[in-house]
Amino acid sequence: MGESNGTARPTIRVGLIGLGSMGRHHARVIRETDGMDLVAVADPGGDKFGVAQGLPVLPDVHALIEQGLDAAMVAVPTIYHEDVALALAAAGVHTMVEKPIAHTAAAGRRVADAFEKAGLVGAVGYVERCNPALLEMRRRIAEGELGEVYQIATSRQGPFPGRISDVGVVKDLATHDVDLTAWLAQSPYETVSAQVTHRSGREHEDMVVAVGRLANGVIVNHLVNWLSPRKERQTIVTGERGALVADTASADLTFYANGTLATQWDAVAAFRGVSEGDAIRYAINKREPLRVEQENFRDTIHGTNTPATTAVSMAEGVHTLTVVEAILESAREASAVRV
Questions:
Q1: Tens of pLDDT along 294-311?
Q2: For 248-312, where are the E strands, in sequence order?
Q3: Distance of CA 338 to the CA centre of its chain
Q4: What φ, ψ does residue 322 adopt, rounded to 5°?
Q5: Which CATH code is given to the segment(s) 12-127+292-310?
Q6: Of the N and C termini of the chain, which has fewer Cβ atoms inside 10 Å?
C-alpha cells in the first residue's frame, strides 16, 4: 500500500471505474476519506462531470489495474459489473461494486467466489445501510428495544430517475429494501410473492408490490415505484414493544411505544391488541452515508472494522440479488417463490 497517513495504517491507493452519476460522488468521497488516495480513474465514455481533476481518464479496467492499486470502486452500469470485478479479483485488488453485485445472481456468485478464493475484501455498495436513521434503528433493534420483531415494511416511491437505463425498479430500488430488511432482522429471506406493472412505456417494470417471510418468521412488505410525484423513503419495524419508523430521506428516526394506560372506552378495550403510547423522535448524528460506506470499506480492508462498521459482503449481495430474482419470477408466474 501507499505511504502512511500519519497513523499506523498505510494509505490505500484507490482506483475508480465509472465516472457517471454515482461515480462522481464516489470520487469526491474517496478524496475526502482519511487513509484513502484516489490515484486513477477510468471510463470508456469519458468524464462528462469533470471527476478526474488532473488524473488521466483511462479507457478500461486493465489500464486502471496497471496504475498499481490496493483497492477499487466499480460504478459502471450493472451489465459490466461481472467482467470488471473479475479482472480486479484476478489482479489482487480489494473491490467495492455498486449495487447490485451483478446483472444476475449466477454472475454475482462467480464474482463473490473469485474474491473469496483470492482472499480479498469484496464488498457491495448498499449505501442505505449507512443511512443514520437505519444505523440507529439497527442498533436499537439489536439492543432489544423493540423486543421480538414482528414485521418490516418499506416504501420507496418517487419520480423516475433519469440516470437509469439498464434495469427496472426492482433491481434498481427494491434491491435496497431487500438488503436493508435482511440486515435489520439479521435473517435471510425464505419466501416472496410479488406483482409488478409497466406504466411508463419502458421495457422494464416501474412498479412493484412484494410481500414475504424471513427465515426467522418476520413478515415483510415492500412498496416500490418510480412513478409517484411524492417522494417517500420509509422503513417501519414493528415489534412487541412498539414500532420504529425511519425516514431515510431526512434521516429521522421515531419510536412509537405501545401504550400502558388502561382505556375506559369499551369498544377499544375489547380489542386484544396494543394502544397508543409515547412517541419519541431521536436526535442522531447525521453523517453522509456515502462517506460512512467508504470508511467501512477502508476499515474492512485494514481489518480494524467492528460488526457495525463492516462493509456489505459479496455473499450478502448475492443473497439480495437472489431474492430480487425471486420477486421478478413471482411476478411472472403469479405465484409465491421459495428463495
A1: 999 999 999 999 998 999
A2: 252-258, 276-282
A3: 22
A4: -60, -40
A5: 3.40.50.720
A6: N
Residue 80: all three cell numbers together: 459490466
Four-way CATH pick for 129-286+319-338: 2.40.70.10, 3.40.1190.10, 3.30.360.10, 2.30.29.30: 3.30.360.10
Task: Supply 324's cell numbers.
Answer: 430480487
Residue 161 C-alpha cell reads as 430517475
Q: How far is CA 85 from CA 4, 91, 117, 124, 230, in A?
A: 27, 10, 14, 11, 36
- Cβ-contact 64, 8 below 8 angstroms: no
The per-residue pLDDT for range 262-273, each reduced to its tens digit, is 555 565 555 567
Residues in the chain: 339
Rounded-to-integer distance, Cα 289 and Cα 287, Å = 6
State the Cα–Cα distance between residues 274 and 277, nearest whole angstrom.
Answer: 9
pLDDT digits (tens, 9 = 90+) for 75-101: 999 999 999 999 999 999 999 999 999
Domain spans, the chain? 12-127+292-310, 129-286+319-338
Number of alpha carbons in the 13 Å side-chain half-sphere of residue 16: 29
